[in-house]
Design brief:
Belongs to the short-chain dehydrogenases/reductases (SDR) family. The chain is α/β, with parallel strands linked by helices and 280 residues long. The chain has a single domain, classed as 3-Layer(aba) Sandwich (Rossmann fold). The chain is built from 8 helices and 7 strands, in the order E-H-E-H-E-H-E-H-E-H-E-H-E-H-H. The relative contact order is 0.14.
């Protein structure tokens, strides 16, 4: 069973930057229509011009929206209904978020994190799945994070969203089994920013992949109908090992990745963000 990517209609959130942008570039030659959702209208315009120049027959719907705000998913869906567009594939790739202690964050910031990274993907799935099931064809690729298996200080709210969605999509996959709908949860590690890429295959420390390679491996796993994708051989090996470690050792790894506390001697030669297994 494969998701209907080729000649299909694909909705991509977080399409303006990072993996969302690279996924849009790699899907553009295959799709009939891309629905690009991003909170930066000017970046949407730039991306659409680039994609249209390379793929003249590609249809595109550009929807500026900030998914960290309640009601934005419903507004996006209403605009699509006005265009008589029903996506057959959903790609959740909205990422980002600040690294800070839970108690140092404002509750507004925490709510925005949970709205963007937990509630918005749930709402999109709830709105789009019934039509996919009725057609007996569809797919959801959620770009989550290795955080779903790690404990990292300073990323507690983001970890809540990622761990929740990991369980949600595993359960949802069982609910739609045999319906023709593919559900894939991707948990990438560190990804080079697009501006850092040179030839798209440049090696990087701590298993950091180029955005091009990461997106390519995510789409390959999604195309094969895999339930869970760890892009990159090194990252997949590490995550397979981490998942078997006792929680006490995982907590120790989290302390190591976060670096020393105030007053302690530094223990890391590399900045902590190089060790955080998040899509960036």
């Amino acid at each position: 069973m494969r998701p209907p990517i080729d000649f299909g209609t694909i909705l991509i959130t977080g399409a303006c930057s990072g993996l969302g942008q690279e996924l849009a570039r790699q899907l553009a030659p295959r799709a009939r229509t891309l629905v690009l959702v991003c909170r930066h209208p000017e970046r949407l315009d730039t991306l659409s011009e680039d994609l249209q120049a390379l793929n003249p027959t590609l249809g595109m719907i550009l929807l500026p929206a900030d998914l960290s705000r309640p009601g934005e998913v419903d507004r996006v869906m209403e605009e699509l209904s006005q265009h008589f567009i029903t996506p057959g594939v959903l790609v959740n790739a909205a990422g980002g978020g600040a690294q800070a202690s839970f108690t140092q964050q404002s509750w507004e910031d925490i709510e925005q994190t949970l709205q963007a990274h937990l509630l918005a993907p749930l709402r999109l799935a709830h709105r789009l799945l019934p039509a996919m099931i009725a057609r007996k064809s569809g797919g959801i690729l959620h770009v989550g994070s290795g955080l779903s298996h790690l404990f990292i200080p300073g990323l507690a709210a983001a970890a809540a969203a990622h761990r929740g969605l990991d369980g949600f999509f595993e359960s949802l996959r069982l609910e739609v089994e045999g319906s023709g709908v593919v559900i894939t949860y991707a948990a990438p590690g560190p990804v080079q920013a697009l501006s850092e890429d040179t030839d798209g295959e440049a090696p990087a420390p701590f298993f950091r992949l180029s955005a091009q390679r990461c997106a390519r491996e995510l789409l390959a796993g999604f195309g094969r109908g895999e339930a869970l994708v760890y892009p990159g051989t090194g990252h997949a090996w590490v995550m397979g090992l981490v998942s078997r470690l006792p929680r006490s050792l995982r907590r120790a790894l989290g302390r190591f990745a976060a670096g020393p506390r105030p007053g302690e001697e530094p223990q890391l030669e590399a900045p902590p963000e190089q060790l955080l297994l998040t899509p960036g």
